[in-house]
Design brief:
Layout: H1 2-7, E1 18-21, E2 27-40, H2 44-47, E3 57-61, H3 67-83, E4 90-97, E5 104-110, E6 112-115, E7 127-128, H4 129-136, E8 148-153, E9 158-159, E10 171-172, H5 173-185, E11 192-193, E12 199-200, E13 203-205, E14 210-212, E15 220-222, E16 226-227, H6 239-245, E17 250-251, H7 254-259, E18 265-266, E19 299-306, H8 311-320, H9 326-332, E20 334-336, E21 341-348, E22 350-354, E23 362-368, E24 373-379, E25 385-389, E26 396-404, E27 407-415
Parallel strand pairs: 2-19, 3-4, 4-8, 9-10, 20-27
Antiparallel strand pairs: 1-6, 2-5, 5-8, 6-7, 11-12, 13-14, 15-16, 15-17, 17-18, 21-22, 22-25, 23-24, 23-26, 26-27
Helix pairs in contact: 3-5
Length: 416
């Protein structure tokens, strides 16, 4: 699992904040040459306009985007905004142009990736800018720069509706944009083709002059439990890396696994490496059209609509570090209430967590009374105890949640 790898780096001193522009690196969504009449509806509160936008998405359209497409695109942004929680707006730039291939529906990716920013667990791992800003709570790039770039194929036969089924001869725009925003938020790997027989992993760091993993990479495993980020097992670039990626590949985050029935999450790993699709999608043989977790598979058919992320995809983003609302977090876990001993309570500056039930590295989440996540701290309960820093929190009641495999333990603390 990822935590053993992350903890190896905790002793490293923080480097100065570094960034790397990834404009041009994007993940592609394809159209299938089939018709599948299947609909996974969007959240009811987004459809009726009553949803609380916990993250504000600021969508900018180029002049080429037709006005009739804007409602579908904003709907997709609102769906994500109702689940994710960030004090920093997510800025999205949408372009509309001929992709040169009728099978390509859209492509997207983060405009910039960051490492060693305040709050980063591992200073030697890249994070997409929107996720990095959600973790640190501050803008990292310029406020007039996009966090996510989306390019939509102007030649596709689009459906612009958001609430009902999709005609048999049309592709659902809201579903495709919802999918592409998922990539921009962090559902993407750095694995890429170097030659016909080798793959590489990692994005180049211009300061260190070496390739460093993006956060998604740390969860990638090939049987029997071999991490792609283990440099002792896989050189980069190498034929061995290619062989691993096209045989069987899985995502091994604790929360996504729990929401997948306790099984590792199968990723798209065709026998021939598919540039722009392999690794950065869910396996479409496992998550078929019409099922709740079909959004992040690599292709969509005419007549198909998927307007909700699904629990596995939300689990993946949660594993990457995306803050979710307290209601969303508790829906992802079987919460065992009042199993955390917290002292002193009331507390000021810090408090101690204590439970013998948690033995593996995890993290503590602290939520304010209104459900906002105000802190996330990686912890290892050495001897059943961990210190949680609460410097800067305003006085009041807070809920503390500690995920542990398929369960999450909780408690209450008063900050004075």
């Amino acid at each position: 699992m990822r935590y053993s790898l992350l903890l190896l780096f905790l002793s490293c001193g923080l480097y100065g904040q570094a960034q790397f522009d990834t404009i041009g690196y994007s993940i592609t969504c394809w159209g299938r040459d089939t018709v599948i009449e299947a609909t996974v509806p969007g959240p009811a509160n987004v459809i009726d306009g009553s949803a609380e936008m916990r993250t504000r998405f600021e969508v900018t359209f180029t002049d080429s985007v037709p006005p009739e497409a804007e409602e579908s695109i904003r709907f997709a942004a609102d769906v994500w905004g109702s689940y994710l929680q960030s004090d920093v707006p997510v800025r999205v730039l949408v372009d509309w142009r001929d992709q040169g291939d009728d099978r390509i529906l859209a492509s997207a990716g983060p405009s910039t990736i960051y490492r060693a920013f305040p709050g980063a667990v591992n200073p030697l791992v890249w994070y997409p800018v929107a996720l990095a800003e959600a973790i640190t709570g501050e803008d990292l790039n310029k406020t007039d720069e996009a966090d996510i770039n989306v390019v939509v194929n102007s030649k596709a036969n689009w459906n612009y509706g958001t609430t009902g089924s999709v005609p048999r001869n049309r592709i659902d725009l809201a579903s495709v944009v919802l999918h592409e925003l998922g990539h921009g938020l962090g559902f993407l790997s750095s694995v890429d083709s170097t030659t016909d027989t080798t793959l590489s992993i990692g994005f180049e760091d211009p300061e260190l002059n070496e390739r460093l993993f993006i956060i998604y990479d740390l969860f990638l495993e090939t049987p029997p439990g071999q991490q792609l980020a283990d440099t002792l097992l896989f050189n980069s670039p190498s034929e061995e890396l290619l062989a691993a990626v096209i045989e069987r590949l899985e995502f091994a985050g604790d929360t996504s696994v729990a929401l997948n029935g306790g099984e590792l999450v199968p990723l798209y790993a065709p026998e021939t490496f598919d540039v722009g699709s392999s690794v950065s999608h869910l396996d479409e043989r496992t998550y078929r059209a019409g099922t709740e977790d079909a959004l992040m598979t690599p292709s969509i058919a005419s007549g198909e609509a998927i307007r909700s992320p699904g629990p596995v995809t939300l689990g993946v983003l949660y594993d990457l570090g995306w803050p979710l609302s307290f209601e969303s977090v508790t829906s992802l876990h079987e919460v065992i209430a009042d199993r955390l001993r917290i002292y002193p309570n009331p507390a000021s500056g810090s408090f101690t967590l204590e439970t013998e039930a948690i033995q593996e590295p995890t993290y503590a989440l602290v939520f304010a009374a209104d459900g906002r996540q105000v802190k996330r701290q990686p912890i290892l309960l050495s001897g059943g105890q961990a210190q949680i820093d609460i410097t800067g929190l305003t006085p009041g009641f807070y809920t503390v949640l500690v995920p542990a495999g398929r369960r999450a333990y909780s408690g209450r603390v008063v900050v004075r």
